[in-house]
């Protein structure tokens, strides 16, 4: 396989183009109960087997009439009642009406429903307090969906409303692409499992937790291989195990230029690296390649860098591999900076910021005070990335910048 890692840093756009060129969306499918399909990706087009609604029905509680029976102020005698699930089945007598409830089938020959608030009842007959129009307050057969209509395309990630829509068609099982299997592990002798006491020089392994939580939000099947020590043999075995079990392998740490970073050496032995470093900040040491079977993403060790590269690179990779064709990245918006934004040209930069609409109705953004790649707390109050172009220098208060609002991966739903 061709190697792309050269002395020149790749742009984010170039890296994504390489990824999408090399990778192929999943083809494996399975049939599952509709009740278990939330957040799954449709593998076939959803075609409606029925009309929705399946029959003409009342949109209101009121009275169903033949419009031509209404002349002047002559009251109409109530001939019966129609309820949802209990229709009025007889022909409607002349000069009469039917008491009808919302959702009830429209009786034969009836063409108009008058809401009860616009009627007067006296001696089992009704008259109308407002002018009436023919055809009002009826939901017609197939008004929502016609039998044979395409309801959802292939590659749709199913939301609660979409699952409910499919249920309204009477479909109880659905064909979806299988879940992506993603193996994750962290590397580094300095890492300690959360909940255990820290020894001298140790830090907690927060990267793997953050990655796992984002993967679970993306409905991936996560294979957690824990912390792998900075030992070539243990790393080699971890990569071999991950490659055998997963479609995608994500490691955290071990992709910089430190003397104890063995990942490059191992990948050259059992796979290939397509690129290693990117012209983005934070997240320069991001690696992408192929093991024997699985694709590989190597995330930086700093937590902010790991989250940014997951969001900007791994998220689109996973959506592509999962055949989620309806996915789109959050569009950039223009916002006015409320304060000085320090930056240096050379890399596309993603700073954390707080965007809001001011009292004048304009979108503005305030950068977080600390932007270091180790400052995880910068995500606590921020709701967007301030996206600074590769050739952009310092931004003064009042200047326009691009922002990218966080999606569901980084904010609570």
Automatic annotation (TrEMBL):
Cellular component GO terms, alphabetical: cytosol
UniProt-listed SMART domains: MoCF_biosynth
EC number: 2.10.1.1
Keyword annotations: Magnesium, Metal-binding, Molybdenum, Molybdenum cofactor biosynthesis, Transferase
Annotated metabolic or biological route of this protein: Cofactor biosynthesis; molybdopterin biosynthesis
UniProt KW Magnesium keyword: yes
SUPFAM superfamilies: MoeA C-terminal domain-like, MoeA N-terminal region -like, Molybdenum cofactor biosynthesis proteins
Keyword Secreted carried by entry: no
InterPro entries: MoaB/Mog-like_dom_sf, MoaB/Mog_dom, MoCF_biosynth_CS, MoeA-like, MoeA_C_domain_IV, MoeA_C_domain_IV_sf, MoeA_linker/N, MoeA_linker/N_sf
All copies of domain MoaB/Mog, residue ranges: 183-320
Essential cofactor(s): Mg(2+)
Reported function: Catalyzes the insertion of molybdate into adenylated molybdopterin with the concomitant release of AMP.
PANTHER family: GEPHYRIN, MOLYBDOPTERIN BIOSYNTHESIS PROTEIN
Name of the protein described by the UniProt record: Molybdopterin molybdenumtransferase
Name of the encoding gene: moeA
């Amino acid at each position: 396989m061709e190697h792309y890692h050269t002395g020149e840093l790749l742009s984010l756009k170039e890296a994504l183009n390489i990824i999408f060129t090399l990778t192929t969306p999943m083809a494996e499918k399975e049939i599952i109960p509709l009740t278990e399909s939330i957040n799954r990706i449709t593998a076939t087009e959803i075609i409606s087997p029925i009309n929705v609604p399946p029959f003409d029905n009342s949109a209101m509680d009121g009275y169903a009439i033949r419009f031509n029976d209404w002349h002047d102020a002559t009251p109409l005698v109530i001939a019966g009642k129609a309820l949802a699930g209990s229709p009025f089945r007889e022909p409607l007598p002349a000069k009469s009406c039917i008491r009808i409830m919302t959702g009830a089938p429209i009786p034969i020959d009836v063409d108009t429903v008058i809401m009860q608030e616009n009627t007067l009842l006296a001696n089992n007959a009704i008259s109308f307090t407002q002018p009436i129009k023919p055809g009002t307050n009826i939901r017609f057969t197939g008004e929502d969906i016609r039998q044979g209509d395409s309801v959802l395309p292939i590659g749709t990630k199913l939301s609660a409303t979409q699952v409910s829509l499919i249920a309204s068609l009477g479909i109880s099982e659905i064909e979806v692409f299988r879940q992506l299997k993603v193996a994750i592990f962290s590397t580094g002798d300095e890492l300690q499992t959360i909940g255990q006491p820290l020894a001298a020089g140790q830090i907690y392994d927060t990267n793997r937790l953050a990655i796992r939580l984002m993967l679970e939000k993306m409905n991936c099947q996560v294979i957690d291989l824990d912390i792998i020590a900075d030992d070539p043999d243990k790393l080699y075995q971890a990569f071999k195990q991950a490659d055998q079990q997963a479609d995608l392998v994500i490691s955290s740490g071990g992709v910089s230029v430190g003397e104890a970073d063995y990942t490059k050496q191992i990948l050259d032995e059992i796979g290939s690296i397509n690129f290693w470093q990117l012209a983005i900040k934070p997240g320069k040491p991001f690696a992408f390649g192929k093991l024997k079977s699985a694709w590989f993403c190597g995330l930086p060790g700093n937590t902010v860098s790991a989250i940014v590269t997951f969001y900007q690179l791994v998220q689109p990779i996973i959506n592509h591999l999962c055949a989620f064709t309806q996915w789109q990245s959050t569009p950039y918006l223009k916002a006015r900076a409320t304060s000085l934004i320090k930056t240096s040209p050379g890399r596309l930069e993603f700073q954390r910021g707080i965007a809001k609409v001011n009292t004048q109705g304009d979108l503005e953004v305030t950068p977080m005070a600390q932007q270091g790649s180790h400052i995880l707390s910068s995500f606590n109050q921020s709701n967007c990335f301030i996206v600074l172009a590769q050739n952009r220098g310092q931004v003064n208060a009042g200047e326009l910048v691009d922002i990218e609002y966080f999606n569901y991966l980084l904010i609570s739903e």
